[in-house]
Amino acid sequence: MTSDTQEHLRKRVKTRHYDTVSSQAIIHTLNLEVSPLYRAAGDGDNERIKELLQTPNININQVSFNKTALEASIIARRESTALLLIDSGARLDFEDGSNALCAASYYGLKEVVQEAIGKGLDINEPFHGKHPILCAVKGGHADMVDHLLRQGVKISDFEVHPSQEGEYVTENSKNPFSAAWYHQRYDIFLLLLDATLTHKCREWRWEYTKLLPQLYESDPQERLAERLAIWLRSRYWVPVNQEASYAGPNMVIWRTLELVFGMGMFLRGDSILVEFLIDKKVSIPKPVLVFLRRHWNGMRAGPHNMSRSLRFRPAILETIIIALPLIRQKDEKDCWLDDVLNALVEEDLPLTFESIKQKLGRQGCLLQGTIPF
């Protein structure tokens, strides 16, 4: 992953339900009073906590800034402190409706997760519509996601790329697949995908050992592409009815392809994954090619159509360019868009609408004979 991409991801995940920086600032505020227990929890001072718990009338669940000492310890990633407080009888439910299981899942504290489960918190119980597995995904902890899956998360309760109206892939998605895709965490997405495929294959009594072999590619995107390639080459793969209900392993694969190729409103596909699949000489399903061809023809018809396509599907142009050898007709003649794209490629500019507008502005005289305004 390039440094630019890493910076982009940092910006995209900066604002979350749990904000470590602001919460730490709250814990260590100098000018506002907090309970000694709360401060000791944020500092991870276990000895001080033991002393305080011996104080008569101490309230282990006293709230400071709408947070208990247990929550402060989890936010500060003081795992041993959180375990001490839980063992000492701290309440596991928090003031905001969250609980220790969800918070520990977000911050990657496995031992706290196990302790919370042992104390009776349900790994499949949501709070405010958010499940512990979603918290782990948004926290960016692949190992925690794997841990929760092994602990019995019902991943079958979630769909890959839900088809319901209004279910878009956004920063606020409450679906773990959508959250992983939005944050470009393909390693986490693959963990969720493999768990789902395993479950679906068992339901359908398919032999899935050869369909889900261990993958050794170091790059998460290439591993995901290889998983899809193995499946699309297998005898089990058959085209699905896109409008059918979410059932069977092949529908899971199809919904994943929708994500990869950006086949949804406001959905950013992934041109790198598309390139991996094409390089692996995978037979791309016909509905995907029809979708790309339709948008290619629409954009060629004029700048207005291209603007609309890119507004609703930000990466569609990059995806089309990579897949162009598969969708372009042999007798197709070049048009204004080909000239602009060639100019962008020569200058190593991104294939975005902003770049195209810039290029049209600078080369308007050169292209005015071919651009249908």
Question: What can be said about this structure in brief?
Answer:
By secondary structure, the chain is mostly helical. It contains 21 helices and no strands.
Structure description:
It is a single chain. This protein is an all-alpha fold and 373 residues long. It has three domains: 17-153, Serine Threonine Protein Phosphatase 5, Tetratricopeptide repeat (Alpha Horseshoe); 156-283, no CATH class; 286-367, no CATH class. 56% of the residues lie in helices and 0% in strands. The chain has 21 helices and no strands. The protein has helices at 3-12, 20-27, 36-43, 46-53, 69-75, 79-87, 100-107, 110-118, 132-139, 142-150, 176-182, 186-204, 220-233, 249-260, 271-279, 286-301, 303-312, 316-327, 336-346, 353-362, 364-367. Helix 7 packs antiparallel against helix 8, helix 7 runs parallel beside helix 9 (132-139) and helix 11 (176-182) runs antiparallel to helix 12. The radius of gyration is 25 Å and the shape is elongated. The protein starts with a helix and ends in a 6-residue tail after the last helix. Residues 1-31 and 362-373 have low confidence and may be disordered.
